[in-house]
């Protein structure tokens, strides 16, 4: 019985057919190195081998650096192109800034669902827990929307994006939001809402073709106005907060780019937008959390014990307004830094036409949460708040076909249902994972 380990096991059964070449090879090896010229050739071969190994290493290093940066690289470009791919006739390719934000995520999904190509952009800053932004990102990823991780102040990155995709539209929703936080971190408002806006407009102006731009202004530009409801033609020169002042500045800046460079611009004054996947810094969201945890909610009250009121607008209505603005936007008219003819410039209120007081909003939450709130009523601090907002939406109605359909009762019910799902999964799993999971469970209609 031949042993498996034994050499004989590998020998062919018919002697003569197989020649053991080991001795011959041995001899050839010796013969080869015995000659000086062949030794020189071997040395040369080793030098070339080492040199090519070293240059290959440096190529791998530099390309991995290139690939691992937040943007850029072959793979990144592929993702951008795939995400921008249009799936309907005469569809748009839209750059959505702030795509991991509340309104940005909803608008991106709505556009993608009807077949437009979307590329998202977001800097994932930590103004509020970025876990929520990452969860919105997963939601968008599951619909094949790629979000570029970057800041609107990054002009090289923007130039690269416009180089890769001929965007027909830009939906600019990236901003430093929040009225009261402006007192804590004023520079973040200048950074995002002014410097970032200018950098983005420069990129749009330089792009060929120039995209049409729709961007988020705010109801806060009406500031301390007393005439209600607020109409687009009303004065907007008495802002009550730095946030409002930067949005007002945005309206002036976009007007300049429209006037000089022929960029088509539509500014949307959003009125206190709320709903599922919303911003945790907003009152309806933080009040819900506090009521559920049995903590007090601080309800501000205006002068002479007057209740504050807001024209709360549900996210689905806002999305319809944004999409209609894109659909009715005319093309930009400039190229090569010059305007060829006057371009469209519009501003619309997107509100709900029916203000609700803050105590009434708390009452609705109590009903949906089936829990009483511990209310602490305090004088409105001088922190940028305005006493009330109320939108006149007739312009948006006429020109965009905008018609809000969700009242606060219904909208908060939908928000509470979403919040319930959130809490259920947070209680059973860790926050990050549960939000990730939620992005698959709860998809906006
Ligand atoms: O419509 C807008 O232009 C703005 O709407 C909201 O700002 P705001 O209306 O102040 O929304 P919340 O922060 O949710 O406040 C809603 C109401 O609750 C009140 N509030 C807020 C916080 C609080 O602790 N207590 C309280 O009574 C506020 O004074 C306000 O009347 C957004 O946060 C802004 O980013 C947006 O631009």
From TrEMBL:
GO molecular function terms attached to this record: UDP-glucuronate 4-epimerase activity
Record's subunit section: Homodimer.
Keyword line: Isomerase, Membrane, NAD, Transmembrane, Transmembrane helix
Residue ranges of every copy of the NAD-dependent epimerase/dehydratase domain listed in the record: 94-331
Recorded GO CC terms: Golgi cisterna membrane
Assigned protein family: Belongs to the NAD(P)-dependent epimerase/dehydratase family.
Reactions accelerated catalytically: UDP-alpha-D-glucuronate = UDP-alpha-D-galacturonate
Location in the cell: Golgi apparatus, Golgi stack membrane
Gene3D superfamilies: NAD(P)-binding Rossmann-like Domain, UDP-galactose 4-epimerase, domain 1
EC number: 5.1.3.6
PANTHER family linked: EPIMERASE-RELATED
Protein topology in the membrane: Multi-pass membrane protein
One Pfam short name: Epimerase
Record-linked InterPro entries: Epimerase_deHydtase, NAD(P)-bd_dom_sf
Membrane-spanning intervals of the chain: 39-56
Protein name in UniProt: UDP-glucuronate 4-epimerase
Native source species: Fraxinus pennsylvanica
């Amino acid at each position: 019985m031949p042993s498996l380990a034994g050499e004989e096991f590998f020998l062919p059964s018919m002697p003569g057919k197989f020649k053991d070449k080991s001795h011959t090879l041995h001899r050839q090896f010796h013969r080869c190195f015995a000659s000086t010229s062949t030794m020189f050739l071997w040395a040369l071969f080793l030098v070339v081998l080492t040199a090519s190994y070293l240059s290959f290493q440096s190529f791998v290093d530099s390309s991995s650096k290139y690939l691992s940066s937040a943007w850029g690289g072959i793979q990144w470009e592929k993702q951008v192109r795939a995400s921008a791919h249009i799936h309907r006739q005469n569809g748009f390719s839209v750059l959505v800034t702030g795509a991991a934000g509340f309104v940005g995520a909803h608008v991106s999904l709505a556009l993608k669902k009807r077949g437009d190509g979307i590329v998202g952009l977001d800097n994932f800053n930590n103004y509020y827990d970025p876990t929520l932004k990452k969860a919105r990102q997963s939601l968008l990823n599951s619909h094949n929307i790629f979000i570029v991780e970057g800041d609107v102040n990054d002009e090289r990155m923007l130039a690269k994006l416009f180089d890769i995709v001929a965007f027909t539209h830009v939906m600019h929703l990236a901003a430093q939001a929040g009225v009261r936080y402006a007192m804590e971190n004023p520079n973040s408002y200048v950074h995002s809402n002014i410097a970032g806006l200018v950098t983005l407009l420069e990129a749009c102006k330089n792009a060929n073709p120039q995209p049409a731009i729709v961007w988020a202004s705010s109801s806060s530009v009406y500031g301390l106005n007393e005439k209600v409801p607020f109409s687009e033609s009303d004065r907007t020169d008495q802002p009550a907060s730095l946030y409002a002042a930067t949005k007002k500045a945005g309206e002036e800046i976009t007007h300049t780019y429209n006037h000089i460079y022929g960029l088509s611009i539509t500014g949307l004054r959003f009125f206190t937008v709320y709903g599922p996947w919303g911003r945790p810094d907003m009152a309806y969201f933080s009040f819900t959390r506090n009521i559920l945890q049995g903590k007090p909610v601080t309800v501000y009250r205006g002068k002479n014990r007057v209740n504050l009121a807001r024209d709360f607008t549900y996210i689905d209505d806002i999305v319809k307004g944004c999409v209609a603005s894109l659909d009715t936007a005319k093309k930009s008219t400039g190229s090569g830094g010059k305007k060829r003819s006057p371009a469209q410039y519009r501003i619309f209120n997107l509100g709900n036409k029916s203000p609700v007081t803050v105590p009434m909003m708390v009452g609705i939450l109590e009903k949906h949460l089936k829990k009483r709130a511990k209310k602490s009523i305090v004088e409105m601090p001088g922190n940028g708040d305005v006493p009330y907002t109320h939108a006149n939406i007739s312009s948006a109605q006429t020109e965009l076909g905008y018609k809000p359909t969700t009242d606060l009762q219904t909208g908060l019910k939908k928000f509470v249902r979403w919040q319930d799902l959130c809490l259920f999964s947070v209680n059973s799993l860790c926050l990050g994972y549960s939000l990730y999971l939620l992005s698959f469970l709860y998809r906006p209609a």
